[in-house]
């Protein structure tokens, strides 16, 4: 059984038949004078010419119609082809684990919590020292060991000032000696000239306003309330959270807890 011919082969055979017929007719036309042609001959010639023109256009358009179909099929196959699953690559898992950020250092946490502040003021009693009243400082001054590392990190990125109300010069000497013994002055970021003393709570408030810090750390809620309008941020150190605080006043039981190292 003969195989079915393709459309291209059929068009080729049609052209051959038309060529033979055209050659036969043209030979007859050239042998007959034009004035002797009747209307049938002229109509046949015109019809033949139209058939040849349409056949030629169909041949030229045929590949133009088929090419876009092949391109569309190719595009469809490309879009539906499954993409390789790169997420399951063991090599990328190893790279992700290698470059995974570790636990932030205390220095990074301090800079982040202080919002890149450049100047910090802090009271001593109840924050840096174990004692909580000026009367206790007349007997002794003890630096809380857990706060030293935080203080040293603060001095690395900020200009730190410590301040406190005292009752006499002996109390000042005890505080400075306790700070020096704890190693607070060894880093070079904090010097004795930045430890300020006054005789009243109003004096401490005045210190803070004159220095214009980015952060102030205190235990007195009244001072925190008074300074809220003038200081960008404050940390109120207290075991109990006040009922009302300004939006820029944070509360923590200690500065170690605030910086996440308690």
UniProtKB/TrEMBL annotation:
- Gene Ontology biological process terms in this record: peroxisome organization
- Biased-composition ranges, Polar residues, are 79-89
Quick one: signal sequence residues? none
One Pfam entry name: HAD_Pex22
Domain of life assignment: Eukaryota
Keywords of the record, alphabetical order, are: Membrane, Transmembrane, Transmembrane helix
Feature: compositional bias, Basic and acidic residues = 67-78
**Membrane-crossing residues?**
41-59
- Region Disordered, residue ranges: 67-94
Query: Which named protein is this?
Result: Peroxisome biogenesis protein 22-like
- The species this protein belongs to is Raphanus sativus (Radish)
């Amino acid at each position: 059984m003969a195989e079915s011919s393709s459309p291209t082969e059929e068009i080729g055979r049609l052209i051959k038949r038309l060529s033979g017929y055209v050659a036969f007719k043209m030979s007859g036309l050239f042998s007959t004078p034009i004035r002797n042609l009747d209307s049938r001959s002229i109509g046949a010639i015109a019809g033949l010419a139209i058939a040849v023109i349409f056949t030629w256009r169909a041949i030229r358009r045929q590949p133009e119609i088929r090419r876009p179909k092949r391109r569309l099929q190719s595009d469809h196959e490309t879009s539906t082809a499954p993409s390789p699953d790169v997420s399951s690559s063991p090599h990328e898992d190893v790279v992700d684990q290698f470059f995974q950020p570790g636990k932030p250092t205390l220095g990074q946490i301090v800079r982040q919590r202080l919002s890149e502040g450049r100047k910090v003021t802090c009271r001593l009693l109840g924050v840096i020292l174990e004692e909580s009243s000026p009367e206790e400082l007349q007997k002794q001054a003890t630096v809380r060991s857990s706060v030293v590392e935080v203080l040293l990190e603060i001095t690395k990125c900020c200009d730190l000032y410590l301040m406190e109300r005292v009752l006499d010069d002996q109390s000042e000497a005890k505080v400075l000696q306790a700070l020096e013994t704890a190693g607070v002055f060894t880093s070079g970021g904090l010097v004795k000239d930045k430890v300020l003393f006054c005789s009243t709570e109003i004096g401490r408030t005045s210190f803070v306003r004159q220095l214009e810090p980015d952060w102030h750390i205190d235990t007195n809620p009244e001072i925190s309330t008074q300074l809220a309008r003038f200081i960008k941020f404050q940390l109120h150190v207290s075991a109990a959270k006040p009922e009302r605080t300004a939006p820029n006043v944070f509360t923590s039981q200690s500065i170690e807890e605030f910086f996440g190292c308690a």
